[in-house]
Specification:
This protein is about 20% helix and about 45% strand. By secondary structure, the chain is an alpha+beta fold. The chain has one domain: 2,3-Dihydroxybiphenyl 1,2-Dioxygenase, domain 1 (Roll), CATH 3.10.180.
């Protein structure tokens, strides 16, 4: 299993204002679902940040997203390791397969793969 990207998720009630703030730092919008906006550096597209009001289908807003090349293998490894699954593995309508897990420090990690 390989990690493709890691994206911090910042929860905010000011998504449009946050989007404009990060644009001042050179980020460009690469995804906007209304409840989440992801911005990326044009010169280093894997350098990304997301701002969101809350997660559309998850029980909590994740602190971090990690995209992997094999989300099913990641899910199996996390389960075998005994970590707390916060949101089960599922396919989402916007084209990702994902689950949430709690890390040892209490942060919620959204682990995903694109279909």
């Amino acid at each position: 299993m390989a990690v493709r990207r890691v994206v911090p998720n910042l929860q905010t009630d000011a998504v449009p204002e946050s989007r404009e703030f990060y644009r001042l730092l050179g980020f460009e919008e690469v995804m906007n679902h209304g409840w989440i906006v992801t911005l990326a550096s044009p010169s280093a597209p894997a350098a990304q940040i997301s701002v969101m009001t809350s997660d559309k289908t998850g029980p909590v807003t994740p602190d971090l997203s990690i995209e992997v090349d094999d989300v099913d293998a990641a899910y199996a490894a996390i389960r075998a390791g005994g970590a707390e699954i916060v949101h089960p593995l599922q396919d989402e309508e916007w084209g990702v397969r994902r689950f949430f897990v709690r890390d040892p420090g209490g942060r919620v990690v959204n682990v995903l793969g694109h279909r």
